[in-house]
Amino acid sequence: MIRLNRLYSSPKIFREITFTSGVNLILGEPSENNAKTNGVGKSVAVEFLNFGLLSKFSTSRVRKIPEDVFPDEVEVCVDLTVNSKNLTICRSRGSENAPKIIVDGETHIFNKLEDAIQFLSALAFSNTADEHPSFRSMLGIFIRDERSEFKSIISGFDTRIRAADDYGPHLYLLHIDVGIYKKIKDLLNEIKNLQSKSKEFVKSVELLRNKSIDEARADLNELDAEVSLIREDIEGLENSSTYEALEAEMQSLEDRISEARQKSAVALEKLSRLEPVGIEKVDISVDELAEYYNDLKSGLGDLVSRDFEELLSFKRKIHQFQGDVLRRRRSQIEQQLDATKKELRVLDKEYKRKLRLLDQEGALRVLRQTFATFQDKSDQLSDLRSFISGHDDAVAERRERTLEKDIELQRLQSEIDHAQAVRKSFEMTILEIHNEVMRNRQASFVLETVNKANVVDLVLRIDSDGSHSVEREKTFIYDFSLLTNEYTSQRHFGFLVHDNIFEVDSDTLNRSLNFIANEASKLSGQYILTLNSDRASADAADAMKELSSCVRASFTKDNRFLGRRYQEK
C-alpha cells in the first residue's frame, strides 16, 4: 500500500500540495480578471507528481517547460508512505537520471533511474512473494496520462506513444499469475524474431540462387557433388606434373579397359555355350520290351529288359556327371565375369577423373584455374548450406517455441478459471458503480486468453458503448472498481489519479460527481481528481458543495501552479 502525502519543490517554485485519504481535488477556477479555467496548471501539477514518482523525462510535459521557469537545479519532491516506511523522492531536471530517495531518514543516491525504480519496486511489493509487474507499469493505470484521452482501459499512456498494451498490471490486480503472462510474451517475441530470421534466410537464398528455398535445396545437392568432383580434380592435378605423364596414364587406362572388356566378352561367350544337356527321351518302356522278346523266346525278354535297364541307368549317371561339370564351370566363369565388371567400373571412374583434368581442347588444365573454380563453388556451397540450414533451424525452433507458448496459454487460461471468484466479485463492483452513474446494470466484464499478440482479452462493456463521454466513463468505472473492490484493492497501490477525465456531457458529469461525493467518506484509498470548477459547479452544484472540503489545491489565470505564464517548448 502506498499513500501520497505531499508534492513540493526545493527551492520553492510552486505551492506545495498536501494529499489525504479519500478524495483529493485539484481545481482550475476562474479569477476576477479571467474566467477561463484551462491552462492554469492542474495537469502540470499531475505531471510534476508523476515526474517525482520517476516517470520518463523524455515523454513528460515537464521536459517542455522552459529552464527559466523550471531550472535544472530545482528538486521536485514527493513525500509518501510505502508499506509503513516514510519516503521522500527528490529528482531534479538536471539530474533526472540520478534521483535521491530518503527512507526513514536514510538517504539513497542512485546513478541510474532504473536502479531507483527497482528500489521503489522492491519496497512497494515487499509484502508479496508472487511475481509482479514493474513499479512504473503499475503506475501506468494508477496515474493515467491526460493525453491517453482515456480511450482504453488497458493503456494509460499518451496515444502518440506506440507501445504494446501491457496486461500484466491488470492480471496482477485480478490475482492471476503474471509470471505465465510474461513467459508467453517472451515466447511470442522469440517466435517473432525467429520468423524474421527465417525470412531473412529465405531472402538470402533467393538473392544467391534466384530461386525459392525449396528449389535451391536441389542446387545444394548438386553443388555438393560438384565441389567433391573438383576437389578430386585438384588432387589429380597436384599429382600430374606434365601432359605427357597424364597422357601415358590415360593410355594405360584405355588399354586396361579394352583388355577387361575383351575378357568380359569371352566370358559371356563361354557362358552361352555352357547350356545344360538334356536326357534323350526313350519312348518304349522296359516292360513292353520284355513282353516283346518273351513272345519270341521264353526268358529272352527278361534278359534283354534287364540289360536295357542297366544301360539307361548308366546313361543317367553320365548325364548327371556332365551337368555337375557344366555347373561348376559356369559358376567359375560367372565369378570371373563379376570380377571383370567391378574392375571395369573402377577403371572407367579413374579414366573419367583423368579426363576432367583436360580442358575442351585436350590441354592440361592449370591448377590455379581449377583451384579458383573450387574456391568459388565452395563459397557458394558454404553460403547456400548456411542459409538453408539456418532457415531450417529457425523454423524448427519456432515450432518448439510455438508449442511452449500454446502450453503456457492453456496454463494461463487455467489460472483465469481458478480466479473466477475474483472476476465475479470485480464484475459485481463494476455493476454497482454502473448502476449509480448510468442508472442501470447493462454492463459486463470478460477476461479470457486469445492466441494473439495481446495474449488476453479484457473486455468491459457498459451501456451506450462507443461515444466520447461513455469511453471516459468506462475508464472511470473500471479504475474506481480496481481501487475499491475487496480483492483487487489488496494488490492496489491505494491511490488513483484522474486528470481531466470528466470532460463529458453534463448528465454524466453530474451523476459521476454525485457518486464520488457519496463515496468520499467511505474511501480508504486516495482518489486525486482534477476538475474545472466552473463547469462542475454548474452541472453538479450539490456534489461540489459536499466535496468542498476535499479541495487540496486550486489555480487560476492569476494564480497559476508555477506562478507565471510560459510557452511550452
Structural notes for this entry:
With 569 residues, this protein is an alpha/beta fold. The protein has a domain at 2-176 and 419-555: P-loop containing nucleotide triphosphate hydrolases (Rossmann fold, 3-Layer(aba) Sandwich), CATH 3.40.50. Helix content is 54%, strand content 12%. The chain is built from 15 helices and twelve strands. It has helices at residues 42-52, 113-124, 135-142, 168-173, 178-209, 213-238, 243-273, 286-296, 300-356, 367-418, 420-438, 468-484, 506-519, 533-539, 541-546; strands spanning 2-10, 17-18, 22-28, 75-82, 85-92, 100-103, 106-109, 444-449, 456-461, 495-499, 526-532, 551-555. The chain has a six-stranded antiparallel sheet with strand order 2-1-4-5-6-7. Strands 10-11-3-12 form a four-stranded parallel sheet, with helices on both faces. A two-stranded antiparallel ribbon has the order 8-9. The model is unreliable at 359-368 (pLDDT under 50). Residues 16-255 form the Rad50/SbcC-type AAA domain.
The global form is elongated
Number of helical elements? 15
From the alpha carbons, calculate the radius of gyration and give it in angstroms. 48 Å
Number of extended strands: 12
CATH superfamily of the domain at 2-176 and 419-555: P-loop containing nucleotide triphosphate hydrolases
- Secondary-structure-based class equals alpha/beta
Binned, the helix content reads 40-55%
Percent in strands: 5-15%
* N-to-C series of helices and strands: EEEHEEEEHHHHHHHHHHEEHEHEHHE
The third-level CATH topology of the domain at 2-176 and 419-555 is Rossmann fold
Overall mean pLDDT stands at: 85
